[in-house]
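seq as requested:
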Amino acid sequence: MTPLKKLITGSTLGLLIPLFAPSAGAATVLLETFEGGTNVFNLPTYNYTANYTLANGLASPGFKYAHGGNPAGGNAVTFQTTFNGPTYNLATLGYDGIAIDSGALTLSLAAQFSTYESQNDFAVVTVQYLDSLNAAIGTPLAIGGPAFVAALSGGTGSRGWGEASLSGIIPTGARSFSISITEGKTPQGAYIDGYVDNVSVSVVPEPSACLLGLAGTVGLLVRRQRRSA
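C-alpha cells:
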C-alpha cells in the first residue's frame, strides 16, 4: 500500500476527523419550562389553571409559567427588574475559538409570552455575548417586550399567548454568553404580570463551513504526503 492510500484508507484519517471537525453539533443549551426543578431565573410562577390568561395553545405549554412578582414600587408605578440566568462558556459546550471566529455558529433564542388583561406588563428575554474577559461584545439578541404583548389577542379580557424567536451568528471574539429576563410593569396593579414560558437557547453550527474546513485540512495533508512520498 502506498503512503497516500494509507493516509486515505487507514486509521490515520479516522484520527484526523475528530481532531479538526467541530466537537459538538447542534445543541439545545437551555430549555426552561418553569415546571419545577432548577428554574434558572428564580422567577415566581403561576399555574395555568388560575385563568389569568387564555389557554396556551402553543407547543408544550405545561402547567406553569413565570411572572415578575410583586416589586417594591407597589401600585400605580412603572417598574422594571431583571432576573439573571446562567452564563454559558462556549468552549465548555464544545465550540472552540476557530469555529466561533469563522462565523460558523448561529445562536437561536425563543420564548412564549403573555400578559394580564389590558395591563400590557411584559417580559424581555435577552442573550448577551461576552468576550474572554467577560466584557459585553456584539449585539444582544432580545425578544418579547411591550409591543409584542400589546398585539396579543384578548384585549381587555384574558390575553392569549404568542411565541417570539430570533437567530443570529455568534460574533467574532465571543467566548461565552449570558441570558436574562427583564420584567416590566405598567402603572396598573401591584404585580409585574409579564408572563413568559418555554425559554429555549440553541447553538447551531453551519454544516457547510464545517465540511469545508475539514475538506481543506484533509487536502493539505494529502498534498504534504505526496511531497514526502
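Residues 1-23, 209-225 have pLDDT under 50 and may be disordered.
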